[in-house]
Amino acid sequence: MAQDLLKGKKGIIFGALNDMSIAWKVAEQAVAQGAEIVLTNAPVAMRMGAINELAAKCNNAPVIPADATSEEDLQKLFEGAMEHFGGKIDFVLHSIGMSPNVRKGKHYTDINYKFLQTTLDVSAISLHKTLATAKNLDALNEWGSVVALSYIAAQRIFPDYGDMADAKSLLESITRSFGYHYGVAKKVRVNTISQSPTITTAGSGVKGFDEFIAYSESMSPLGNADALACADYCVMMFSDLTRYVTMQNLFHDGGFSNTGVSMEVISKFAPEE
């Protein structure tokens, strides 16, 4: 990979919980490519994770707690980041997702609707609030880049993904809608990356996740993309190499999204001789 792709750029990374997190890998790769970063997560997630360890590895990056569903917290985050950087921000990673219904094993046809509101607020509406806060504060430089992590369940049914599928659909819609308005106003680009199923703390909480990872691996011509490969893709999206890419949902899944069936899967149904 080319070096110093993000030299001189400054960004905010949401959602690094531990070294299994895609956001953790993105933070490491962004710094390796020359960026300065601020790390943030919800206070409860910070107590559960090891974000201070990551901060130390990333040139003692500041950690600013923020609940991404709170407009007040987001304003303090962006103001604090700009104060630290001495200017505006070039990129943001939104790596946030949580469903109480999935965590509690609620079937999609029998969900708790208060939980659904939480799922949508945390996993999707938080992106709208993040973008609105940044735009209102004029916090992002022109040609800045915002990337949110999505999943193909926004387009296809994966039964155990539950109401997170609805949240990802909304996340991608916000990306298109806000991406248009932010692009017109400030040339800020907004995209989602639809990643392969990846072994993370959040992902492993989905019922049948291990089995689905194996299925996806057997369906993808290139195999599943891991967290580090996703981090490299995020770095490219933050860089000047992708200045005219916006309002897109970009599949980063080894070809899974365009594969109807693979010979490996077909072979599992072949009669025994």
Furnish the topology, listing elements before pairings.
Blueprint: E1 10-14, H1 22-32, E2 36-40, H2 43-48, H3 51-57, H4 71-85, E3 89-94, H5 100-103, H6 113-136, E4 140-150, H7 164-186, E5 189-195, H8 209-219, H9 227-238, E6 249-252, H10 263-267
Parallel strand pairs: 1-2, 1-3, 3-4, 4-5, 5-6
Keywords:
Rossmann fold, 10 helices, globular, 273 residues, 6 strands, six-stranded parallel beta sheet, alpha/beta
The proportion of residues forming helix, as a percent range, comes to 40-55%
**What would the principal axes of the Cα set say about the shape?**
globular
**Whole-number count of domains:** 1
Number of helices: 10
Distance between the termini: 47 Å
Residues in β-strands, percent: 5-15%
Q: Looking at CATH, which topology would you report? A: Rossmann fold
Radius of gyration based on Cα positions: 18 Å
Instruction: Kindly report the oligomeric state of this protein.
Output: single chain
* Spatial strand arrangement across the major sheet: 2-1-3-4-5-6
| Low-confidence region ranges | none
CATH architecture: 3-Layer(aba) Sandwich
Average pLDDT works out at 94
CATH class: Alpha Beta
How would you describe this structure to a colleague?
This protein has 273 residues and is of the alpha/beta class. The chain has a single domain (10-267), classed as NAD(P)-binding Rossmann-like Domain (Rossmann fold). Helix content is 43%, strand content 14%. It is built from ten helices and six strands; from the N terminus they run βαβαααβααβαβααβα. The chain has a six-stranded parallel β-sheet with strand order 2-1-3-4-5-6, sandwiched between helices. Helix 4 runs parallel beside helix 6 and helix 6 runs parallel beside helix 7. The longest helix has 24 residues, at 113-136. The chain is globular, with a radius of gyration of 18 Å. The termini are far apart.
